[in-house]
């Protein structure tokens, strides 16, 4: 099946739109140019090279604010999920806007502390395999909450807290056994998954936890998966959590926090049709309605829905080639730079950075592939795109989440530079790696 790529960009997230360039360098070539905020991406690519991650600060802030507004009717804290995009400058931008953070490793905790030390008290620590060192660092930093995922972890947490003569605030991450329609690798809320403790066993574990002096039971958490675009599974999970909260309070536990996790998906296809405020509001209703009357403080852990549409991976066409009639566009970005298509078969819209007048645009079905020596190294297969020539630029959209965060040095490819654009200014928030950086630790 071939899918035609939208070229007008009309209604794309505000950070990435086509404009006419009337002044300067670009004027000589006809057509429209893709901008990130108020800067032509062509100029960024000329100046900083490709492949290049470009993020719009205004899109990040606007989405964070819209998400926050959707929950204004309940006490809540947004704990942005650091693993979606962990660049220090993005963490700092979000912290300025009032965000807390969800971390899943000691490394992510350190990032938060470097970005904004005072955000520590708004940090929740999730993950099935926290080490003693990581737990101890989080206790010393004074984080808000540990999302504990097993009985053994509970005892480890107690031991670390006892050693520091402190008390560890915790929620058990319960597995609500709710199915969510997403890729199997990022679905986490079913009994068969490694995450959390079965919701049926939760009361017993809470009883054990509250008997320990160094543990402080304070909430219940869940996280049913990622890239979930229907809100019903969230409501279903919350309905089960609400029942549990009632039972735990009857058992005499203090339950101040409910943490529904993250996982709200984004439309990787037809993103134009989506109004994020309305979507966030639907999500908020699904989460908060089942919790009505419980008077809990809601912790939210969105990642993708905040930063996904705020980023694009800009890449240059190296070669065009045809094998037995099949057309390939070989670009200078690869699976090591953006793994999602190879890992999940994920779809990303790909648009030309310069497009001709509408009447002159010719479409063709192509595979957009990178230089890595694997057939899994593709960004699109059999996709109808406006014809692009060697040397021209493409933008792979919605790459702000799980893009750079999942990038590797496979094939000894230095990772791309990252730019944060704000209005007319662009800031390098991570310099392009050099091959020397990759070899340094092996000498
Ligand atoms: C990955 C993850 C998130 C963020 O998920 P998104 O789909 O990016 O919103 C939140 N909480 C936990 C525990 C996670 O593992």
What this model shows, in words?
Strands 1, 5, 15, 16, 17, 19, 20, 21, 22 and 23 form a 10-stranded mixed beta sheet that branches. Strands 6-7-8-9-10-12-13-14 form an 8-stranded parallel β-barrel, surrounded by 5 helices. The relative contact order is 0.17. It contains 12 helices and 23 strands. With 443 residues, it is α/β, with parallel strands linked by helices. The N and C termini lie far apart (49 Å). It folds into 2 domains: 3-56 and 309-439, Lyase, Ornithine Decarboxylase, Chain A, domain 1 (Beta Barrel), CATH 2.40.37; 58-304, Alanine racemase (TIM Barrel, Alpha-Beta Barrel). Residues 5-12 have low confidence and may be disordered. The longest helix is centred in the middle third of the chain and has 19 residues, at 232-250. Helix 4 (106-115) packs parallel to helix 5. Bound molecules: pyridoxal-5'-phosphate (PLP). Residues 81, 83-84, 102, 104, 126, 223, 226-227, 261-264, 301-305, 401 line the site of pyridoxal-5'-phosphate.
Write the layout of secondary structure elements.
Layout: E1 3-4, E2 16-20, E3 32-36, E4 39-40, H1 41-48, E5 52-56, H2 57-70, E6 76-81, H3 88-96, E7 100-103, H4 106-115, E8 123-125, H5 132-141, E9 145-148, H6 151-163, E10 168-175, E11 197-198, H7 202-210, E12 215-221, H8 232-250, E13 257-261, H9 276-288, E14 297-300, H10 304-307, E15 311-323, E16 326-331, H11 340-344, E17 350-352, E18 354-355, E19 363-369, E20 378-386, E21 393-396, E22 417-422, E23 425-430, H12 435-440
Bound molecules: pyridoxal-5'-phosphate.
Pyridoxal-5'-phosphate binds at residues 81, 83-84, 102, 104, 126, 223, 226-227, 261-264, 301-305, 401.
């Amino acid at each position: 099946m071939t899918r035609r790529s939208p070229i007008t960009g009309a209604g794309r997230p505000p950070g990435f739109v086509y404009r006419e360039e009337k002044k300067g360098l670009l004027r000589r070539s006809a057509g429209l140019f893709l901008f990130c905020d108020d800067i032509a991406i062509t100029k960024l690519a000329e100046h900083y090279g490709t492949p290049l991650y470009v993020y719009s600060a205004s899109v990040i802030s606007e989405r964070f604010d819209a998400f926050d507004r959707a929950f204004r009717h309940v006490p809540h804290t947004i704990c942005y999920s650091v693993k979606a995009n962990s660049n220090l400058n993005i963490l700092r931008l979000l912290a300025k806007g009032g965000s807390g953070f969800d971390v899943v490793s000691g490394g992510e905790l350190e990032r938060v502390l470097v970005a904004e030390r005072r955000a520590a008290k708004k940090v929740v620590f999730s993950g099935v395999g926290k080490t003693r060192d990581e737990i101890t660092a989080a206790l010393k930093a004074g984080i808000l909450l540990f999302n504990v995922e097993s009985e053994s972890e509970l005892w480890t947490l107690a031991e670390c807290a006892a050693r520091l003569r402190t008390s560890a605030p915790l929620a058990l991450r319960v597995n609500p056994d709710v199915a969510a329609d997403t890729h199997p690798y990022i679905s986490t809320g079913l009994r068969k998954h490694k995450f959390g403790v079965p919701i049926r066993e939760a009361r017993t574990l809470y009883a054990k936890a509250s008997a320990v002096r160094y543990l402080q039971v304070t909430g219940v958490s869940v996280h049913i998966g990622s890239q979930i675009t229907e809100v019903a599974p969230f409501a279903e999970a919350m309905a089960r959590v609400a029942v549990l909260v009632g039972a735990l309070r009857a058992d005499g536990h203090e339950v101040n926090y409910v943490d529904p996790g993250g996982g709200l998906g984004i439309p990787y296809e037809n993103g134009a049709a989506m109004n994020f405020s309305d979507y966030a509001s639907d999500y908020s209703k699904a989460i908060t309605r089942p919790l009505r009357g419980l008077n809990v403080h809601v912790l939210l852990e969105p990642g993708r829905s905040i930063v996904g549409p705020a980023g694009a991976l800009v890449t240059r066409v190296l070669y065009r080639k045809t094998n037995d009639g099949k057309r390939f566009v070989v670009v200078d970005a690869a699976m090591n730079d953006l793994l999602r298509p190879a890992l999940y078969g994920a779809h990303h819209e790909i648009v030309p950075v310069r497009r001709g007048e509408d009447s002159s645009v010719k479409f063709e079905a192509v595979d957009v592939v990178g230089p890595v020596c694997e057939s899994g190294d593709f960004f699109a297969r059999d996709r109808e795109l406006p014809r692009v020539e060697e040397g021209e630029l493409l933008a792979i959209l919605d790459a702000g989440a799980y893009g750079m965060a999942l990038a590797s040095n496979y094939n000894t490819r230095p990772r791309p530079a990252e730019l944060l654009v704000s209005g007319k200014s662009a800031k390098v928030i991570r310099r392009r790696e050099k091959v020397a950086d990759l070899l340094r630790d092996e000498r």
